[in-house]
Amino acid sequence: MTENIYWILELDVHADALEAFRVLMLDMVAAANRETGTLNYEWNISADGRICHIYVRYRNCAAVMDHMAGWDMKFSRRFAALAAITRMSVYGAPDAALKAVLDPYGPVYYEQFGGFAR
């Protein structure tokens, strides 16, 4: 078992917002790349540019809290203006403090059932 917390976020990119969303994505990727606790930060877009999946993996709950504090201050308004969250699936064992931060986004939490990480 690992302390990693990870999620898949599904977004509906607003019509005619793809280019502005791309600029936001580049800014967010650059910021996340400077965070030592962010292990994966991968964005994928559908062929029509309307559905985006973001896979994010953090070292632990503290790393997520660090990321979320910076995200809220720097990116949340731009993000909400360009896309809507349609689904958020969270994996790992988030503590109560982290769940309180994530709950407003409507996540479904999944507990590890088996497997391994390398």
Task: Please render the helix and strand layout as text.
Layout: E1 5-13, H1 18-33, E2 38-45, E3 51-58, H2 61-74, H3 76-82, E4 83-91, H4 96-102, E5 108-110
Parallel strand pairs: 4-5
Antiparallel strand pairs: 1-3, 1-4, 2-3
Structural class: alpha+beta
Say what the CATH topology is: Alpha-Beta Plaits
Across the major sheet, the strand order is 2-3-1-4-5
Low-confidence stretches: none
Distance from N terminus to C terminus (CA atoms, Å) equals 10 Å
Instruction: Please indicate the percent range of residues in DSSP E strands (runs of 2 or more).
Output: 25-35%
Task: Tell me the number of helical segments per DSSP (H or I, 4 or more residues long).
Answer: 4
What would the average pLDDT be, to the nearest integer?
Answer: 95
Rounded radius of gyration (Å): 14 Å
CATH architecture: 2-Layer Sandwich
Largest sheet: 5 strands, mixed
Count of structural domains: 1
Order of helices and strands: EHEEHHEHE
Query: Into which percent range does the helicity of residues fall?
Result: 25-40%
| Morphology | globular
Number of strands: 5
Top-tier CATH class: Alpha Beta
